[in-house]
Amino acid sequence: MGLVALAIAGFTTACDVTELTPANLIPDSEAFSTAARIESAVLGVYESAQRGYYNNAVQRGYPFGAANVEQGDMRGEDMYNDQLFYEITYVGSYSPNSANNNGMWISLYRMINRLNIILENLDIAVADGVLTSEQGDNYKGEMLFLRALAHHELLVHFARPYSDDPSSLGIPYRTFGIDDVTKVPDGEAVGRTTVGEDYTQLLADLDAAESLLSEDDAFRANKGAAIALKSRVKLHMGDWAGVLTEYNKLTSMYALTANPATPFRGGNSSDNIFSFVNSAEANPGVNGALPSMYGNPDLGARGLVKISPIIWRSEFWHEEDTRRSALTTRSGTGIFTDKYQDATTYTDPNVILRFAEVVLNAAEANARTGKLAEAVTLLNSVRSRALPASVPAYTVAGLGNEDGVLTAIFNERRIEFLAEGRRWADIHRLSGEGRMSGVPAKATSRSITNIDFYTTDREIPMDHSIDYSSHLFVWPIPLAELQTNNTAPIQQNPGY
């Protein structure tokens, strides 16, 4: 891994990203000599997830402080690019040198390297009496969960989907750390395995994490988070029975909130399973934070991304749905999400896993296995909480058949997870399966300049679709990765 040298220096640096106070900098040789220093090293991994690497800088929210949401949304059609800032991702003009996809690759592998170094030292710390066995196991579970989360993010951006061909090129799945330049050749020698092999390792990491983690709050990796991420991973694999197994584990631990806005108003809720913290002291900054990028400029935000009129005017989003009123604001130029509100100090957490996602995963798994009544019941549990009692719930008969039920579930995912970055992952897996033909046409970048595009039948200019067969459907491996890997250069995605 030619870029692995970027991950070696100062891996224990940490900031106040989980509302704890770690040391600012600890020499690597002493990082595991006390329990407090190990905690600081662990918090350094959360920091690298919240404020990683982007174009030789931090404070852009790579990979999980905000960027996973912004890049995931900009690869889809339901959130709209209003300025030049996200143009490359929105129109699909990325290259092996473009900053957004390179930032994702580098920041994810930096994070992975940090956590792998910690994993290799935890058993030693327990044996030396620095940590108890329980402490060591919980840290190990946290690191394994975060390793799986990072590798899955890489897979949905840089590899073809499991639903197409598990034997296609995956990504390098890194399971050991590099904390010295003498180890760089070993890292470089880890090549691209298959997508299927990567998913096998993902599940191994998550099974282990589940067995090690406790039920903690939503701002640290916890047992529920490992189970919920397995639900997501198994959905991408088409393992419908597995999706239902994971759902059933969580029904006594979490519940949907009656108010769809509650999961986005800070703190824990019954729907919040795992989030990355942002604080006034540590956040993705004005050029990356979700409330800055997505918020209404009339309310002090930059407002570079707004809701697309495509979904706002869709027939499947009911006019009386409270998610239209409680979770959006409008200006003269369009409609903005209100899921993220702090455009001053950027303290809105980035919600990664919610119980609502697990419920809709289970709804889809039921529909895929012929249990349509069960599927519609779960679908209605998400949808009906946002609708007045006067709006009838869905019925199997009303939706028609399995395809009708699945379409309603896919549409509900678009509404429920709007502005949460989940749209790209669905396009990825459904295109691989053949249910979608690639990235759908979007509202033409920087053309939606008036609220009329939302409130009237004014024609929406359309562009930027990407066929599934196009090389542009997946991101290129960074050119610097290929050029600086002297041991075993990995294979570039075809077409770049």
TrEMBL record:
Keywords: Cell outer membrane, Membrane, Signal. The keyword Membrane applies. Signal peptide: none annotated. One of its GO terms (cellular component) is cell outer membrane. Residues 89-235 form the SusD-like N-terminal domain. The keyword RNA-binding does not apply. It is found in: Cell outer membrane. Residues 330-496 form the RagB/SusD domain. CDD domains: SusD. Belongs to the SusD family. This is Starch-binding associating with outer membrane.
